[in-house]
Amino acid sequence: MSASLRLSTLILPVRRWHEGGREQWQRAEALGFHAAYTYDHLAWRSFRDQTWYGAVPTLTAAATATSRLRLGTLVTSPNFRHPVTLAKELITLDDISGGRITLGIGAGTNGFDSSTLAQEPWSQRERTDRFGEFVPLLDRLLTEDSVSHQGTYYSAEEARNIPGCVQRPRIPFAVAATGPRGLKLAARHGQAWVTTGDPKVYATGTPEDSLEAVRGQVEKLEKACTEVGRDIAELDKVFLTGFTPDRGRPLESLDAFVDFAGRHIELGFNEIVLHAPVPDSDFAADQKVFEQIATEAVAQLG
After folding, report:
1. pTM of the model
2. Residue of 70, 89, 163, 166 with fewest CB within 10 Å of its CB?
3. For the range 291-297, what are the long-range contacts, defined as Cβ-Cβ under 8 Å and sequence gap of 24 or more?
4. Measured on CA atoms in the order 289, 102, 184, 39, is the torsion positive or negative?
5. Rounded to an integer, what distance in angstroms lies between the CA atom of residue 251 and that of residue 256?
6. CB neighbours of 274 closer than 8 A, spacing ≥ 6?
């Protein structure tokens, strides 16, 4: 991979491990992807009534089946996670993988994850407040041997996390955010920032509208970094594809993807994530084209 762009993939946890699941992660490594991520949900969108496996066990299995590929979530949220238990799982996963884990983390939404535990729906303000407490506490849990904290939503009493992460001072956070408070969390605690574009533009906007909206997000991130005394250049900028008005067109051909990626590189992104094809779904795509993009696109964009 060139220094200017890292190409990664997102593998939905929909295949049985011994019926193609293991091979899919190994294939991602063989194709030269920088990282392979998976979603961290209890159920998700049109896959709710179909096969769907847990993120942490899947990543643990992937860690034992690969040796170079970075692995991670895009994204984990507070919807059904607690910082104390999550930290223990992440430290273990980082150890098993030999220090190849990235935690993608976001505030989450009022989807299936928020209702499955039969809890009262969180308001947008409470969701933002929870995220604002979740991330700093998780940061401490992954960097300190013992943590005590009494918060509004999350608490810990002498939580032990020895020996800590293989990666020091902890595994990197890729913070998904577009609002002012989330962007400030990314600026303070993130090693990367993640966006999928602007959901308001997805349904009725044009690719040009999407680019302009994303440009605005980058400008807001830069402002948030300035406010906390950090250079925006210190953060990787990750674009998860599939949720812009282009929809699946970037995966229709190598040329289409190179054009799409080039426009986002110009906005400052240095990692672009493609969904691995899933037949008969919103992520259906030609596997041969997907693999051609994986092996040839970066050279054209370098």
Report:
1. 0.96
2. 163
3. 291/31, 292/254, 293/7, 293/251, 293/254, 293/257, 294/7, 294/9, 294/31, 294/32, 294/33, 295/31, 295/32, 296/254, 297/7, 297/254, 297/257, 297/258, 297/261
4. positive
5. 7
6. 7, 8, 9, 10, 241, 242, 250, 251, 257, 290, 293, 294
